[in-house]
Amino acid sequence: MADEEFEQAHSGASQTYPMQCSALRKNGHVMLKGRPCKIVEMSTSKTGKHGHAKVHLVGLDIFTNKKHEDICPSTHNMEVPNVRRDTYSLINIGDDNFLTLMTDSGDTREDLKVPDDLCSELQKAHDNNTDKDIMITVLMACGEEKIISFKQVDGK
């Protein structure tokens, strides 16, 4: 017994949690085809002679914007991803478009790349910026992270 090892998990380590399909709502999140998605369309069919009402879900992958669909009985559970947004202060943009970011606690990270659709706009804001801080918003779910937006705030 003494030579067994157990992996430790962080608090909130579960990447998903179950929710009854009928409790899901438009603009909420759900796992479709194994991907975290934002629900953009939902419709419920009436109960047929063979049982449950069915819910037709259409969602957009929150990282790739790819469309996914699924049909589930309304009484069954579906997995809902734990989605988190964090905000970081921008320190620098590297030549390879990787950002140097600072957390609220003062730690830095350099592992996030600017998405192509934000790259030129962020670079322009960073170059023309002298008295404002740039805050970067990062979306996290299921072990993936993506920069989704930035905003300029008055400096200290």
UniProtKB/TrEMBL annotation:
Subcellular localization, as worded in the UniProt entry: Cytoplasm
PANTHER family: TRANSLATION INITIATION FACTOR 5A FAMILY MEMBER (PTHR11673)
UniProt keyword Cell membrane present: no
NCBIfam families, sorted: eIF_5A
Function: Translation factor that promotes translation elongation and termination, particularly upon ribosome stalling at specific amino acid sequence contexts. Binds between the exit (E) and peptidyl (P) site of the ribosome and promotes rescue of stalled ribosome: specifically required for efficient translation of polyproline-containing peptides as well as other motifs that stall the ribosome. Acts as ribosome quality control (RQC) cofactor by joining the RQC complex to facilitate peptidyl transfer during CAT tailing step.
Protein family per UniProt: Belongs to the eIF-5A family.
GO molecular function, one term: translation elongation factor activity
Annotated Translation initiation factor 5A C-terminal domain residues: 82-151
Keyword set includes Protein biosynthesis: yes
Biological-process GO terms, alphabetical: positive regulation of translational elongation; positive regulation of translational termination
UniProt keywords, alphabetically: Cytoplasm, Elongation factor, Hypusine, Protein biosynthesis, RNA-binding
UniProt main location, coarse: cytoplasm
UniProt name for this protein: Eukaryotic translation initiation factor 5A
Matching PROSITE patterns: IF5A_HYPUSINE
InterPro entries: IF5A-like (IPR001884), IF5A-like_N (IPR048670), IF5A_C (IPR020189), NA-bd_OB-fold (IPR012340), Rib_uL2_dom2 (IPR014722), Trans_elong_IF5A_hypusine_site (IPR019769), Translation_prot_SH3-like_sf (IPR008991)
CC annotations in GO: cytoplasm
Pfam families with a match to the protein in the record: eIF-5a, IF5A-like_N
Post-translational modification: eIF-5A seems to be the only eukaryotic protein to have a hypusine residue which is a post-translational modification of a lysine by the addition of a butylamino group.
